[in-house]
Task: structure prediction
Amino acid sequence: MTIPATTTSVATARRSVAVHASGVSRSFGGRSVLHGLNLDIAPGQFVALLGRSGTGKSTLLRILGGLDADYSGDVAVPERRAVVFQEPRLLPWERVLANVSIGLKRTGPNGLASLSSLSLAALREVGLADRARAWPVTLSGGEAQRVALARALVREPALMLLDEPFGALDALTRTRMHGLLQDLCARHNPAVLLVTHDVDEAIVLADRVLVLSGGVITVDLPVALDRPRDRGHSGFLSLRSRLLAELGVLVQQEKKD
Result:
């Protein structure tokens, strides 16, 4: 989904960052969800955001994506950004190729042909060029989400915002999507913010893992592990244990024992 720029231009923030958020607060019905949050993301950096349900992860993503303007604080983001949600949100009355190019402007006498060419190239990158004429209803869950990724990447965003995009997929498809996303990000090099509940997913994909709690970022850890990442590696397990503890998971398990 392409989002028009409604927040401050990134040029007004420090040039070394793709995302700059300072003192961001957001309330719903008198309940504070974000409370003076600060966040910087470097160009090309992949950041994963963890937190318990209701802590404001998706709220922050919507603010950065220009989908929620009812906040206080300063936000600077690139003009070119795209959002991928848990649901692919494909239009059922349009074929796959048309879904990829939705929202793109036609320019010049060959605008339509150019859009089709760009969209087909994006589908080729996610391995779905042969499904360009298919209807969304005929796609599997993984295929539909790959179309959503193609729709985001065809816009060459400087910032990709991913709101649990693989949460509804089975484990095998999810693993394949992780590899695809890593390849696409390496090729296009956008800054990425991934909202997820899956600690392992965060460590596998991200350069940094954040924990959101009490309306602010309480943990900001670099993931200094070689790629591809081995889930059995001592460094992976150590980071996983720390993040689970920060999320209260290990504490709860110990109480049960």
The chain has a mean pLDDT of 89. Strands lie at 8-9, 19-28, 31-41, 46-50, 72-77, 81-84, 159-163, 191-195, 208-213, 216-222.
